[in-house]
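In this section we walk through a basic example: taking a raw amino acid sequence and producing a predicted 3D structure, encoded as discrete structure tokens. The instruction is simple. Fold the sequence below.
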Amino acid sequence: MIRRVPFQAPAPFGVEVLTIAQLWAMAPPGYLASPQRPDFHLLLLVTGGATTHSLDFERYRLERGSALWVRPGQVQVFGERATGDLVLFQPDFLIPGTHAATLAGDRAGLVAATAPVEPARRALRREYDRARQPTTVQTETLRHLLSVLILGLARHTPDRTPDAAGLDARFRALLERDFATAHDVAYYARRLGYSARTLSRATQAAAGESPKQAINDRLALEARRLLAHTDQPVSQLARRLGFRDPSNFSTFFTIHTGQPPTVFRAGTRP
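The resulting token sequence is shown next.
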């Protein structure tokens, strides 16, 4: 079962900053070791010790100076307890039109990084701890400090072609919304106002893959999530992902993961 986690910050800023120790103290036994699907962004900033964090079937080793960005809708599982901060923020918290907001909307963007962001982290925590009332000045200050932190992380990732990256980001956002009902590249190209060839060039330049690869990868990822963390029958799961014929879904899943759905599901269970 995947627990869907809503945003429930104690202060109505749209952002929450807490220590990893505080999270472990609040969480019921075993909760952090089970799959969760937050409806918000989560930045995990490790300042001491080490931990592993599972994110959509990828395991990340995080040590001092490491950061991990969990985006809304991704499935995560916490590992060992480390020292550091967690920054939780809603998708619309960052200032629209800024590069930090663009990075937050880019689901194919920054995931894990090692960057010297201690001054930005401390400044954000200090301002958050100081804020008690949701005044305009305090909210804007938190927005800007969070943007500084995100830009500091982004500075340590490779640059991408701006035009290609912009179109690719728009494609990823549309894909995230419609992947379960639209499986063909022509649909996305048409909705974005470009030819399929132009869209393909953009995704190749920005992410090194074709739009069709991205569509298939997103479908396969969601299928793995549902098979691993729910008990829905394969036929029902297939319809949920836009496959009219369960056998077509089974063929698709086998091609893209190397295992039939039933075998994959069995391998994820104790």
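Looking at the output, two observations stand out. The chain has two domains: 3-154, 162-268. The radius of gyration is 20 Å. In the next section we compare this with other chains.
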